[in-house]
Amino acid sequence: MNNDDLEIVCATSLFARLQRDAANKILGWSSPKAFEKGTVLFTQGSPANSFYVVLEGWVKVYRTSSAGQETVVAVFHRGETFAEASIFLGGSYPASAETVTAARLVRIGGDVLRRAIREDPEIAFSMLASTSAHLKALIEQIEQIKRLNAKQRLADFLINLSGDRKGVSTLSLPFEKALIANRLGMKPESLSRAFLQLRPHGVAVERDRVHIHDIGQLIALVETTDDDLGE
Amino acid sequence: MNNDDLEIVCATSLFARLQRDAANKILGWSSPKAFEKGTVLFTQGSPANSFYVVLEGWVKVYRTSSAGQETVVAVFHRGETFAEASIFLGGSYPASAETVTAARLVRIGGDVLRRAIREDPEIAFSMLASTSAHLKALIEQIEQIKRLNAKQRLADFLINLSGDRKGVSTLSLPFEKALIANRLGMKPESLSRAFLQLRPHGVAVERDRVHIHDIGQLIALVETTDDDLGE
DNA sequence: CGCGGCGTTGATCTCTGTCAATACTTGTGG
DNA sequence: CCACAAGTATTGACAGAGATCAACGCCGCG
Question: Taking Cα atoms as reference points, which of A199, A175, A169, A201 lies closest to residue A188?
């Protein structure tokens, strides 16, 4: 593993607080691997024996209904780990994962992780911090779906994509709009219309390029309850 | 703590696999406490220093928007632990918690838990299993909200309330309908109408008593995709 | 008895899903 | 180089689900 990769791994919430030798204990036998777009990493119900670190690209985690309908639960990218909680569910993955762009990932065996925790209990705290952070993210997603409408959910998505940029921001959508729509709990048609609704709020879209005139305006949009009278 | 209480605690996924002395290490200085309905246990943003075990009653965990709107994320009852993940977020609770019935709870300090993990790393695995289980539950809730309509979500709720009973089942709703509605991501009016829609499927409601004629019928309802043609 | 909280019901409106038609983009092969 | 097909995104018309607003019924409680 080269230095750039190592830097990314050590920036994840799982590895951030670990000593270098503790990190090596986990990473020891793992090396980054490239996957092409559309590679299924694991499927819902299959034995959960590994978790992943994303070095590059995007990975969707989704559940499939009995009728074959996909529901995207999360989308991970550079500097994030996923499926590390599944290791401890004692059995099978509760969801499937697939690369949605070309991607480079590190795959780490659950047995390696378990052994590392036994040898160095401090690793357990990092694991707990990491899964707790995922838990918090899911809680926030649930609140988002329940409380916001399509337009607001898209605004929220764009805000997060902008990271810590303020004011004007131009960015390119990291993956297909159909996936964005699914992640936001709506249909592609609704996403198109949500983009149109954001135009008056300073959002211009051209293909996968999005120009945001003022992020503060989007933030205001999300915090507005449209019933700003009572409550 | 009396024997009945201890039995409940030891049945939680967090304590289930622990040796008796490991459990005592954690429970040592904690004793059950009674709370009346409507007691706020902690609020979103306040320092996260404890987690809880429910011995009796029901507790809602919810987030509050800037406009004061509440979104229920989970409702916990006998034999469940909650907020144990918050301990490891390093900072504050990401949600609030309030008893929605009279309740008896055990409150356990985060410092106690942390010390116990350092002394006995096996506890870490139980913690990880427990938070992972919560994570899985949230993933399933997200899928439920995104994929099912109001009628199906209510059916799913009733199925879970019925536990492992099959066929006919009579039960009483454990808390107010407004809370059920919120938990299911709908308005109270919609919940009323969802109950009406379930009548043809063998569900009779009278006040807080629900009589289910055939649970299998409800299960079929949830698995139906109403677009059972293509996909 | 009257009040207040909770739940239901009805009328209406808004949002989102559905279905269908139409670009636009990209890749392929003649 | 162009024709064509397949995948992706947009747009329009329409229908249905759920929200909203308002009124009312029910029940417990002072």
Answer: A175
